[in-house]
Amino acid sequence: MSDVIDQAKRALRADLRERRQMLSDAARAQAGVGLTTQLLALVDQYGATSVSCFLSTTIEPETRGFIRAAVARGVRVLLPVTRVDGLLDWAVATEDGEIAEGLFGLPEPVGDLLGPIAVNDVDLMIIPAAAVDRTGMRLGWGRGYFDKTIGSMEGCPPVYAVVFDTEYVDEVPREKHDQPVTGIVTPTRTVRLPAAG
Q1: For labelling, which of 51, 112, 169, 187 has a CA lying 20 to 30 Å from the CA of 19?
Q2: Would you say 139 and 12 are in contact if contact means Cβ atoms under 8 Å apart?
Q3: Is 114 exposed, middle or buried (0-12, 13-18, 19+ CB in 10 A)?
Q4: Could you tell me whether strands 124-128 and 159-162 are parallel, antiparallel, or unpaired per DSSP bridges?
């Protein structure tokens, strides 16, 4: 990794994290409602019966309302569990699913693990991001789990990154291993990116 790109990524992540922390509880709650609406519409658009999603942290756009609603509709939702080898494992979300602190202090499901290849069966992937640019390049939070997962899938389904509206930007720093996404979902809109075809 070039030091210049690494420094640019770290600076942008720090700025975005700080902006997210400044959001009020009311703005966060409103964003969560909007995001649930957008994500459910996306699932309907793709006719998805199985999706992967992530349990949001306190500073991320809130995904838990969507997960509850999707499970209640009968959609199979896989949630990621981080592993020390850099791969993601997966567990099925349930209505009363227990949540614990994972490897990096992130919220993760407690339950039977299905293995890293379980994600190959989903119709749609919903992943976290710090920012996404207009070409579809995603800036993650620096651990590479989702880039590695997407890059290793033979028949990768559509991948949508969840961001706040202001995090859809003109350009993000990128490296060879960074994976593009199909589109973004924000609390107010869903955008399929031109590079996705």
Answers
A1: 51
A2: yes
A3: middle
A4: parallel
**pTM exceeds 0.85:** yes
Q: Which helix H or strand E contains 111, and what residues bound it?
A: none
Per-residue pLDDT tens over the stretch 114-147: 999 999 999 999 999 999 999 999 988 877 789 8
Asked whether residue 99 carries a pLDDT value surpassing 90, the answer given is no
Count of domains in the chain? 1
- Tokens 């939070």 found at: 141
Question: Edge to edge, what strands does the sheet with 138-139 contain?
Answer: 138-139, 131-133, 168-169
pLDDT band at 50 (very low <50, low <70, confident <90, very high): very high
| Residue 190 tokens, joined | 């869903």
Each residue's pLDDT tens digit, 70-92: 999 999 999 999 998 888 999 99
In the chain the first and final C-alpha atoms are separated, in Å, by 29
**Segments of the chain assigned E as strands:** 50-52, 76-82, 88-92, 99-101, 107-109, 124-128, 131-133, 138-139, 159-162, 168-169, 183-185, 190-192
Mean pLDDT value across the chain: 90
Amino acid at 79: L
Full domain range(s) for residue 73: 3-196
